[in-house]
Amino acid sequence: MELTLWTYEGPPHVGAMRIATAMKDVHYVLHAPQGDTYADLLFTMIERLPDRPPVTYTTFEARDLGGDTAEIFKNAVAEAYDRFQPRAILVGASCTAELIQDDPGGLGRALGLPIPVVPLELPAYQRKENWGTAETFYQIVRAFAGANAPEAGTERPPRPADKRASCNILGATALGFRHRDDVREISGLLRRMGVEINVTAPLGARPADIARLGEADFNVVLYPETAGLAATWLERTFRQPSTKTVPIGVGATREFIDEVLELAGLDSARLPDDELTRLPWFSRSVDSTYLTGKRVFVFGDATHVAAAARVAQHELGFSVVGLGTYTREYAREVRAVAEELGLEALITDDYLEVEATIKELQPELVLGTQMERHIAKRLGISCAVISAPVHVQDFPARYSPQMGFEGANVLFDDWVHPLMMGLEEHLLGMFREDFEFNDHSVPSHLANAGSVQSAPDLEQQMVTSPAAGETAISGVWSLEAEEELRKIPFFVRGKARRNTEKFAAMNHVDVITVETLYDAKAHFGR
Amino acid sequence: MTGTALASPSVACAVDKEAPVLRERGQREVFCGLTGIIWLHRKIQDAFFLVVGSRTCAHLIQSAAGVMIFAEPRFATAIMGEKDLAGLTDANEELDRAVEKLLARRPDIKLLFLVGSCPSEVIKLDLSRAAERLSATHAPDVRVLNYSGSGIETTFTQGEDACLAAMVPTFPAEPADSEKSLMVVGTLPDVVEDQFRRLFDELGIESMQFLPPRHSTEPPTVGKNTRFLLAQPFLAETARALEERGAERIAAPFPFGAEGTTSWLRAAANEWQVSRERFAAVTETKRRRAELSLERYRDRLNGQRIFFFPDSQLEIPMARFLSRELGMELIEVGTPYLHRHHLADELSMLPETVVLSEGQDVERQLDRCRSAKPDLVVCGLGLANPLETEGLATKWSIELLFTPTHGYEQAGDLAELFARPLRRREKLRV
Lengths: 526, 430
Prior knowledge:
The complex is a heterodimer. Chain A is α/β, with parallel strands linked by helices. Chain A has helices at about 10-20, 40-45, 60-65, 70-85, 95-100, 105-110, 130-145, 180-190, 205-210, 225-240, 250-265, 280-285, 300-315, 330-340, 350-360, 370-380, 405-415, 420-430, 450-465, 470, 480-485, 490-505, 515-525; strands at about 1-5, 25-30, 55, 90-95, 115-120, 165-170, 195-200, 220, 295-300, 320-325, 345, 365-370, 380-385, 475, 510. Chain A contains 23 helices and 15 strands. In chain A, helix 13 (about 300-315) links the parallel strand 9 (about 295-300) and strand 10 (about 320-325). Chain B is of the alpha/beta class. In chain B, strand 7 (about 180-185), helix 8 (about 190-205) and strand 8 (about 210) form a beta-alpha-beta unit. In chain B, about 45% of the residues lie in helices and about 20% in strands. A 7-stranded mixed beta sheet of chain B has the order 1-2-13-12-11-14-15, with helices on both faces. In chain B, strands 4-3-5-6 form a 4-stranded parallel beta sheet, sandwiched between helices. Strand 1 of chain A pairs antiparallel with strand 4 of chain B, so a sheet runs across the interface.
């Protein structure tokens, strides 16, 4: 049993819903107790989709358990087929239905419907949402593209010289973080490069489109978490190579372009040179100097974390002081990224552990999920969301991709905007006793009344009660040193305290004076 | 549970003695009882709700709550894994460990609810025994109770019913010679409780208590001199538990709108033999003020046709309020369960032409709704935006639980909830 306050991922059948909802002409019949229909609101309220997800639930109750729940399931499938006339039906069970072992796959097939019935086995007590998404997409790809698979061992025939290179774009789902906009951005980029797009899936694809996947020359995998499994199978079955770079950030987008050129057998001349990214110039402009070394903590799914760490460190000049992921399936990749930065990755789906880490590291910016947004709000730290799980405000009305060159522009705006602006930060440091312009002020461009109170409160808490382990090593603060500490802007005060205490412990200083404070400052730098 | 259990989704039209009710069995687009934790954990300030369930349960609560609106919630989920399913001994040990961890983290907790879920019930994990065991371990600091919020047993607001019912046996008995006392039953916002307390006080009913209490350490007393008024229509089990302790229910309509609130207060006043004059003196000004606040909305809502999907069991009192005080026309009033006894006064106040439905086959009900083309649809969060897309105006029913709606001072706010979607549609030119 695992004690959880908040969960980063839903159960695996929600992953299956994300695939079914992303696609067209597919219907998912889910054997599930009453109440599991809550999942509809993820799509209709959080993502604001105009239609109900194409999901029928059996919603059995206690009184049904003594009777024939299998019969209820069969009727639900038959009625869903009659009413919605899908071209494929997915069948499966949620966590409770898994326990009653009605075999939705067998029951669904036994109906003899004139359309394919794809059974989904998603073990709810072992796996989670992203795994369910990947597995469902893989099963659909196998079911529909599999029929057109060449015999094992057949080499892929070379592309005719008069035919343009083509690719599939894989991985975008319903409820994904900016998936809709990423697909548009990358589709545009690929077309401008002269690459044809064969199929985009699952987002917007019909079963008939899935059947054509094998016709493309290669696959563009936008989100390995959802499409990695299917892409591996396609590679094996159709000898279709896949892109490995996720084009988030300027550097990654350039590498992605090189990868595509290679896979498509194109020369770089085909890429128009007016691809517009402002990030490199904005980052080099003098106003951005104040971004240098801003301490950043990164947490989310593996794909977005790996990309964000690179952009933060190398393209915005921040210092990544910690990173991690809740995606255990891709822990290895994230650990490798952390290692490059000289860090140890935090691999956990325990919200409390992430909170404790952020508290301890006291970063100036958190790049995380909806969960970290709340942690950061409580700790009075700036935050930008980079990954699912997300909330309604992370489905913006405007075009706002994360990928490609426009995506890099968005990253610059979204990550820099929550921070204290350059000169303002200096003024705060210089005139902190100004009665209208002090620690309790939020950045002037952010009219967020809520954080006016929460930030100092929390900082107080952080300053007066450092983590338990640290009290033991720290010297005692003299009154003067405490007062001096309070003059340091609140967003670096916690760090100054920690550094000073560490310095005191290292040098066996019993009483921390104003001198110790400045000795420590000189020792550690800012 | 009422209703005919039919093996397959089908429609049955049963003619009751009182009014015909359309009973259906198909897909129910409703929350399970775990959802009640969202408001209960804020009301009882020293209580913690531990759901013993699956990742789905945890995901439901955080999704229904709009994802993490509270700094640190007083609820959590003990997510069962494969190991827990394999052996119940292990599951019990694991549960004890989870509770230990939780209480160490939150020493301020005085009352812990173990909340049963669909999977915990299907594997027959006995949470009442677990609660007894854990109560013994953690007494006297923490009392541990249990109830079921599972979807196979409860629909949405029935979770609150199950929770309150679980508390009733633990309440101290009132002294045998005590005077008659009043208990108001059902979670109310603090501001509404205060308003009611003042009203009852002015009526001369001084000994009064609320269930649930704001702190578990100050529980209400109960006994044969307790008279209780239900503030919510979904509290069948709680009422039964109170009656088992000797308390008597005062039959009344529910305190929504000027008329409903007056009738509700009068029922108590009659029980205490408050004079007609005194009752008028206390309520008249407030009733008029409530009527005045409704006046503003009557033009907008009068003659508008409304359709209720089943959700919170508040549908029937709402329909009564909207039809009688605001002149709305009722097309279909769906409710997950129809408790005829507790709703007797409400049902008698509905127009004869009303179509009541109990249970749900959401697809068929959507067909009926589309063909009726109502001016306003009251429904759950999963259906609202899709219906808006189809051109229908909607009101999310969950707001009826999340906003203060009871009593005189909130009558206008309640009307506003239904008028706002219509006004907004008129306002928009995009």
